[in-house]
Design goal:
This protein is an alpha/beta fold. It is 46% helix and 9% strand. It is built from 13 helices and five strands. A five-stranded parallel beta sheet has the order 2-1-3-4-5. Helix 8 links the parallel strand 4 and strand 5. It is globular, with a radius of gyration of 18 Å. 42% of the residues are buried. The N terminus is likely disordered.
């Protein structure tokens, strides 16, 4: 398991004056925000979403623009994940990964789910793209049946992927997300951004701090409106800490011993998982207080 504690130390001491770097979209002032005050948001997806946990840019932008909304954000990213949840399986069949995906959403208990899929499908080639639409429809339908709103984010190209016909696959994935959004009455945030080399990690596979700041503004324009706001270091650090606590709640270390076929050895320690929610709720309150300063 990848613990997030090691990442907290890489939160930069740079306060990005985001408004000057990334001009505010005029449409954000005329379009009703997709989120409501006190919404509980689960961000679900693959590697791109999982790495959001390591800095506070995305949630920080939402909280800074609307500090009085007291939004709750839970990151359910899982490296390599797709709409079928295959990456989430444990010692079961691949189908069980999807059940784990739905269970993870229940742990987050959101009012709205932001789905960021299509990245893994585009990098996995034609067969994965061919299964994407049906998988996305099933996932949306299953979430909507729990009386939760669904928002879709279109994938965008990342320069590190060298898969054959990758640009065509990304274009197909974007079109699928937009089409499925209409068919399922789900809001769609179309991300037109194509990251430059300065906005991604050395391998070009995910955004870096600057890239996530850019993405944060694109998402915040649609989700909460308002104007770009610098994400202060203290707020960013508190978000990273909260993300770490939630990570350990829904993806506890040594699940085999705590919850699965070796729980007869250390299963008594699983009681500690129930101690995380109060800590996470306290962290949320600190985030709201910092965002309001």
């Amino acid at each position: 398991m990848r613990s997030l504690s090691c990442f907290a130390t890489i939160v930069t001491g740079i306060s990005l004056v985001i408004g000057s770097l990334f001009p505010h979209s005029a449409s954000a002032e005329t379009t009703k925000p997709l989120l409501n005050p006190k919404d509980r948001v689960a961000i679900v997806g693959g590697t791109l979403v999982e790495r959001m946990q390591n800095n506070g840019q995305v949630e920080g932008q939402l909280q800074s623009r609307r500090p009085d909304w007291k939004l709750t954000v839970r990151n359910l990213g899982w490296s390599g994940d797709d709409v079928h949840g295959y990456a989430r399986k444990r010692f079961d069949s691949p189908r069980e990964g999807y059940s784990r995906l739905m269970a993870d959403i229940e742990v987050a208990d959101p009012t709205v789910v932001l789905l960021a899929y299509g990245f893994a499908e585009a990098s996995d080639g034609e067969r994965a793209i061919g299964r994407f639409a049906d998988g996305l429809k099933r996932l949306i339908r299953d979430i909507q049946q729990t009386n939760r709103r669904v928002i879709l984010m279109t994938p965008f190209p990342l320069p590190g992927f060298k898969t054959e016909n990758y640009q065509e696959s990304i274009a197909q994935a974007r079109k699928i997300v937009q089409t499925v959004g209409k068919e399922t009455d789900s809001a769609v945030i179309s991300i037109a951004w194509e990251p430059s080399g300065k906005e991604v990690t050395a391998d070009g596979l995910v955004p870096n701090e600057m890239g996530y700041a850019r993405l944060a503004n694109e998402l915040a324009d649609a989700l909460v409106g308002g104007h770009p706001h610098p994400v202060q270091n203290e707020l960013s650090e508190q978000i990273v800490r909260k993300n770490e606590l939630f990570f350990h709640q829904y993806r506890p270390q040594n699940e085999t011993y705590l919850l699965l076929f070796r729980k007869h050895e250390q299963g008594n320690n699983a009681v500690e998982i129930g101690e995380f929610p109060p800590l996470i709720e306290a962290a949320d309150k600190k985030i709201w207080a910092s965002a309001a300063q």
